[in-house]
UniProtKB/TrEMBL annotation:
Keywords: NADP, One-carbon metabolism, Oxidoreductase. PANTHER family: DIHYDROFOLATE REDUCTASE (PTHR48069:SF6). The keyword Acetylation does not apply. One of its GO terms (molecular function) is NADP binding. It catalyses: (6S)-5,6,7,8-tetrahydrofolate + NADP(+) = 7,8-dihydrofolate + NADPH + H(+). It comes from Conger conger. Gene3D superfamilies: Dihydrofolate Reductase, subunit A (3.40.430.10). Belongs to the dihydrofolate reductase family. Residues 4-187 form the DHFR domain. Pathway: Cofactor biosynthesis; tetrahydrofolate biosynthesis; 5,6,7,8-tetrahydrofolate from 7,8-dihydrofolate: step 1/1. This is dihydrofolate reductase. PROSITE patterns: DHFR_2. GO terms for cellular component: mitochondrion.
Amino acid sequence: MSRILNSIVAVCPDMGIGNKGQLPWHSKRLNNELRYFQRMTMTPSIEGRQNVVIMGRSTWFSIPAQNRPLKNRINIVLSRQLKEPPEGAHHLAPDFSSALRLLDTADLAEQVDQVWIIGGSSVFKEVMEAQDQRRLFVTQVLQQFDCDTFLPPINPSIFRLLPGFPGVPEGIQEENGILYKYEVYESIQT
């Protein structure tokens, strides 16, 4: 089945997305940005369906235990090491391709609306290199923090920056002294 693969991520100017298993700016909570993430990944476009969040094992375990699974979303964890879904996860897949095939099974095909990839770095890389139609919802945090995990570069010959997108706030946002802006990129169909 043809579907749009949505990735959602917040990045520092150097494309850093994490540090020691946490968001680089974890000490300065960006509650509005977190609410944006929740709203985008949680809100289906088809009534009676649910969105899916796909994430790697490390991303799953970086979510505080009390917040797992991400509520009102079907949580799929990718891992070649785990033999069964971690406690709270709805499904386990050994790789990204297997997760997408899982969405087409009788069990999920009638439940699933939008697909959201939420990390980590290697999963984002795989999606960014996929042949499917893709969108990248990127929060550009306009301040540098220490990072040890990075988003691959966004190739302008593959993705174009959209001038706006429904439901995505425009302009510079400010929270706890940190400036950021939302951007949406879409894959260029050839």
